[in-house]
């Protein structure tokens, strides 16, 4: 199942935990901004589990 990872920018404080656990480098936190690269994501949801403030959700896409 392909997923899109969505961030709640009000909650995210750019700690980098999601970046650290992503096996595909599909998330970066750079220039004070959280960025997602859907073409790299394999839908493991490690990032969602790793976020200490629950800022990420995985939305299933076609
Ligand atoms: S679901 Fe997995 S591959 Fe996709 S961004 Fe999160 S940790 Fe990376
Ligand atoms: S783990 Fe959560 S708070 Fe930390 S950078 Fe990722 S989305 Fe933001």
How would you describe this protein?
This is 4Fe-4S dicluster domain-containing protein. InterPro entries: 4Fe4S_Fe-S-bd (IPR017896), 4Fe4S_Fe_S_CS (IPR017900), Fe-S_Ferredoxin (IPR050572). Keywords: 4Fe-4S, Iron, Iron-sulfur, Metal-binding. The chain has a single domain, classed as 2-Layer Sandwich (Alpha-Beta Plaits). 16% of the residues lie in helices and 32% in strands. The protein is built from 2 helices and 4 strands, in the order βαββαβ. The chain has helices at 17-21, 46-50; strands spanning 2-7, 27-30, 33-36, 56-61. Strands 1-4 form a two-stranded antiparallel sheet. The termini are close together.
Strand tally is 4
Bound molecules: iron/sulfur cluster
CATH fold-level assignment: Alpha-Beta Plaits
**Reported CATH architecture:** 2-Layer Sandwich
Q: How is the largest sheet built, in terms of strand order? A: 1-4
* Main sheet properties: 2 strands, antiparallel
Summarize the structure in short.
The protein has 62 residues and is an alpha+beta fold. The protein contains 2 helices and 4 strands.
Key features of this structure:
two-stranded antiparallel ribbon, alpha+beta, binds iron/sulfur cluster, Alpha-Beta Plaits, 62 residues, 32% strand
What is the topology?
Elements: E1 2-7, H1 17-21, E2 27-30, E3 33-36, H2 46-50, E4 56-61
Antiparallel strand pairs: 1-4, 2-3
Protein name: 4Fe-4S dicluster domain-containing protein
GO molecular function: 4 iron, 4 sulfur cluster binding; metal ion binding; oxidoreductase activity
Pfam families: Fer4_21
